[in-house]
């Protein structure tokens, strides 16, 4: 049997928690949605849980007191409402959930909070701007795991959903949940007809079943578990370094003069 990991709040206990001064709380936030033909609906959440657990371990073993909260499995899916079981949580609902979680943490003196986002449809920055003003005693930040490193030096084709990166990560983390390769879709996108949209200086939410053909966006054909392991190690080590730095930082003195 495995012992409870003290940085994982769902596993630990009051005996451990009452004697620990946690410096950083991390909230993983994923989604429940289709990922091409071959990846599980929980892909975003499974990646989040594994990345946060490993980054939390690395940070904890350096002495940083981090607390990894349970992953929230529902994200913004307003462009996928016609796909069964793509469970939508509106931004206004996310805002209310964040308000309650942050207030709970602030109330017991946790000084720093990181929202670890694993779903491209979630955008928490404006929410944190508003919530930071309401909760000045806790420092708020967000990390999108796909923004830590693109992995362009590891992967042949970088897409943005159920692509080579996500397929490689799931082959590394949960190979039993990935369908055989002959069942992978090509992940081809359909382009916007409007030039400004194609050039990405205008933006609108994608209607997913029109923008994609198998719900994937990016060709996964070159994915391997070995690539996933390399990418996972890079992401978790870099995220852990942020947690270590943040845990040691004084949230009232986070800036320095430019050189």
Detailed description of the structure:
- It is a single chain.
- Helices cover 37% and strands 8% of the residues.
- The protein contains 9 helices and 4 strands.
- Helix 4 (125-134) links the parallel strand 3 (112-117) and strand 4.
- It has helices at 14-17, 43-61, 91-107, 125-134, 145-148, 164-173, 195-198, 208-211, 225-248; strands at 24-29, 66-68, 112-117, 139-144.
- Helix 6 (164-173) packs across helix 9 (225-248).
- It is an alpha/beta fold.
- Strands 2-1-3-4 form a 4-stranded parallel sheet, with helices on both faces.
What is the global morphology? globular
Poorly predicted runs are: none
The span between the termini is 52 Å
Rg estimate, integer Å: 19 Å
**Beta fraction of the residues?**
5-15%
User: Count the helices. How many?
Assistant: 9
Order of helices and strands: HEHEHEHEHHHHH
Question: Which secondary-structure class do the elements indicate?
Answer: alpha/beta
State the strand order across the main sheet.
2-1-3-4
The description of the largest β-sheet is: 4 strands, parallel
Mean pLDDT: 97
Number of strands: 4
Helical content (DSSP H or I, runs of 4+): 25-40%
């Amino acid at each position: 049997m495995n012992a409870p990991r003290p940085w994982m709040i769902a596993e630990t206990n009051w005996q451990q928690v009452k004697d620990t001064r946690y410096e950083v709380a991390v909230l993983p936030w994923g989604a429940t949605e289709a990922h091409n033909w071959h990846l599980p609906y929980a892909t975003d959440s499974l990646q989040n849980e594994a990345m946060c657990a490993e980054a939390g371990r690395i940070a904890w073993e350096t002495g940083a007191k981090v607390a990894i909260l349970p992953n929230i499995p529902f994200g913004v899916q307003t462009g996928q409402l016609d796909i069964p079981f793509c469970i939508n949580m509106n931004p206004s609902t996310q805002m209310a959930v964040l308000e309650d979680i942050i207030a709970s943490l602030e109330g017991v003196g946790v000084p720093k909070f990181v929202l670890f986002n694993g779903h491209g449809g979630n955008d928490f920055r404006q929410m944190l701007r508003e919530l930071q003003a309401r909760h000045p005693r806790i420092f708020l930040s967000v990390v999108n795991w796909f923004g830590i490193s693109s992995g362009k030096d590891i992967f042949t084709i970088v897409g943005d959903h159920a692509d080579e990166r996500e397929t490689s990560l799931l082959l590394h983390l949960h190979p039993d949940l990935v369908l055989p390769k002959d069942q992978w879709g090509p992940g081809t996108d359909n382009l916007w007809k409007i030039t400004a949209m194609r050039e990405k200086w205008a933006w609108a939410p994608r209607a997913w079943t029109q923008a994609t053909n198998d719900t994937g966006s990016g060709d996964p054909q070159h994915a391997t578990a070995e690539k996933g392991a390399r990418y996972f190690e890079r992401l978790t080590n870099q995220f852990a370094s942020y947690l270590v730095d943040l845990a040691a930082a004084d949230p009232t003195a986070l800036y320095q003069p430019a050189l």
